[in-house]
């Protein structure tokens, strides 16, 4: 399978910092309206005031839910030329930031003072409270994709690839993951109480590390800051082995995802983080190898049939 990455490029370019996910949700809804006629199953769609900016797609008779978060890291304009981080941005001075306020479009430059507080350089004062995100320079290379916001537009991309062939399952596009969460608990309540769904896969991306490399397959995480139930993770690994899908096992002591919120919820969710590894996280130059994306899509398709 050689996926077309035009959709991923479009997703990366949509501004959607934590708390401002509505533009991403609106794009996904338009995409579904256009594309679902070619999908195996037309999903029920749940959104609106009761879901804030989150979005739930229900296909057939679901057993498993896939979570992909819509928000990205970035900055909020404070006073004077000060910036407050959204999540954990990690760009160098000189990185270009974009946004819009009451006076129009913004293209400014990131800077830091001697105490490493983030500032912006621009020809005018920007309205306080304005969200700024990285200017996206999407590079579709021979073996890899480089762009800001592959975290987690790649997770959304994989979920939408899955939606085209999914017959039974739930896909959830969640909010606020990068800035401490808050959207997943009510979504967990909704799918547990409505359909008794209690197992979940986290479609996100993780880090290249001393034990996880580019090009060796999708990552199945045994743990991060949170520890999922090993019995469920072993079922995920068994499916990958059965179908000879390239994968890597990850063990980390830091980092978290929507899975952490599921684990802290009052509902008995089993969950596993399954995602491609990337380099230069939370910078404008996040990089993922294409064959890791392909193995991620292939594994999700098998998991949603067999879990």
Q: Order of strands side by side in the largest beta sheet?
A: 1-2-12-3-13-17-15-16
Structural class: alpha/beta
**Rg result:** 19 Å
User: What does the average pLDDT come to?
Assistant: 96
- Number of helices, counting only DSSP H or I runs of 4 residues or more: 7
Major sheet size, sense and barrel closure: 8 strands, mixed
What is the name of the CATH topology of the largest domain? Aminopeptidase
Q: Give helix and strand order, one letter per element, not per position.
A: HHEEEEEEEEEEEHEHEEEHEHEEEH
Low-confidence stretches: none
Quick overview:
The chain is of the alpha/beta class and 307 residues long.
Question: How would you describe this protein?
Answer:
Strand 1 and strand 2 (55-59) form a beta hairpin. The longest helix is centred in the last third of the chain and has 17 residues, at 290-306. This protein is of the alpha/beta class and 307 residues long. The strands form four sheets. Strands 1-2-12-3-13-17-15-16 form an eight-stranded mixed β-sheet, with helices on both faces. Helix 1 packs across helix 3 and helix 3 packs across helix 7 (290-306). It has seven helices and 19 strands.
């Amino acid at each position: 399978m050689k996926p077309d990455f035009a959709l991923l490029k479009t997703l990366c370019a949509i501004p959607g910092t934590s708390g401002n996910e509505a533009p991403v949700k609106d794009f996904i809804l338009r995409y579904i309206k256009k594309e679902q006629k070619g999908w195996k199953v037309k999903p029920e769609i749940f959104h609106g005031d009761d879901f804030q900016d989150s979005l739930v797609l229900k296909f057939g008779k679901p057993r498993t839910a896939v979570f992909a978060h819509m928000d990205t890291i970035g900055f909020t304009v404070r006073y004077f030329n000060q910036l407050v981080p959204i999540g954990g941005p990690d760009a160098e001075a000189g990185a270009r930031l974009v946004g819009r306020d009451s006076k129009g479009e913004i293209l400014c430059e990131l800077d830091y003072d001697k105490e490493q507080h983030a500032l912006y350089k621009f020809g005018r004062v920007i309205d306080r409270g304005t969200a700024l995100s990285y200017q996206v320079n999407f590079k579709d290379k021979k073996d890899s994709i480089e762009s800001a916001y592959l975290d987690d537009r790649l997770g959304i991309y994989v979920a939408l690839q899955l939606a085209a062939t999914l017959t039974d399952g739930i896909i959830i596009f969640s909010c606020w993951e990068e800035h401490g969460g808050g959207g997943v608990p009510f979504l967990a309540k909704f799918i547990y109480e409505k359909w008794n769904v209690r197992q979940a896969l986290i479609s996100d991306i993780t880090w290249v590390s001393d034990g996880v490399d580019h090009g060796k397959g999708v990552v199945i995480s045994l743990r991060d800051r949170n520890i999922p139930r090993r019995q469920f993770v072993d079922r995920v690994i068994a499916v990958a082995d059965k179908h000879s899908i390239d994968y890597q096992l990850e063990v980390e002591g830091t980092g978290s995802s929507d899975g952490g919120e599921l684990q802290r919820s009052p509902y008995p969710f089993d969950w596993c983080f399954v995602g491609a590894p990337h380099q230069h996280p939370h910078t404008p130059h996040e990089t993922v190898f294409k064959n890791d994306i392909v193995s991620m899509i292939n594994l999700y398709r098998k998991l949603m049939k067999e879990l």
